[in-house]
Amino acid sequence: MAKQSIFGRIAQLAKANINALLDAAEDPTLMLDQMVRDYSNSIAEAESAISETIGNLRLLEQDHAEDVANAEDWGRKALAASRKGDELRTGGDAVDANKFDNLAKVALGKQMSAEQEARTAEPIIASQTAIVAQLKQGLDAMRGKLTELSSKRDQLIARAKTAEAQTQVMDAMKSIDILDPTSEISRFEEKVRREEARVLGSQELAASSLDAQFEQLESSDQAVELDARLAALKAGGSPKSLTSGE
What we know:
Elements: H1 2-15, H2 18-23, H3 28-90, H4 94-178, H5 181-234
Helix pairs in contact: 1-3, 3-4
């Protein structure tokens, strides 16, 4: 039952939905690290259980080999006692011959007992051998799962870091949008344009004032000319001609 409990727990871990567990985890890295540790510990328990099973199998195999060896040894002893009994009987010593025959029977009984023990152990050994093979295969699969889990852990942590970096970039971009330096440049540009417009206005106003002064001067010259011509008329002269050159 202990072995079943160990492998049942490992099977549940192997089938666990890592992403679903991560959704509930405050720190995905810590969650993944804990899963790797739990899986590693479970595999260590499985290795211990398998080692114990293999150890028991090796003991059974040693006992079986000993039973086989004992059966062979008792068989040789039975044969030797039987031959000795035959020799004694041939020599006319029936009493000692019977003793050796009885020893041969005792040896044969021991041989049969050893053979029975060996036969009894054989199906158990076969079953345990098959179980050990399955356990080794399962352990290899678990180690593969651990490698996969570790790789998944590294991938997810890398993705989490990438997502975190992207979030930081997005936050920075939002800050730039809120405090857009180009808006400050636009404000300065507008200020320069207003200053340029003010200068243009001042220049235009200055030009208008200068034109007015020249117009006023021209008007003054014309008035002087009119007064001069009027004075000439009153003196008895004739009006100056624009084409006369006078």
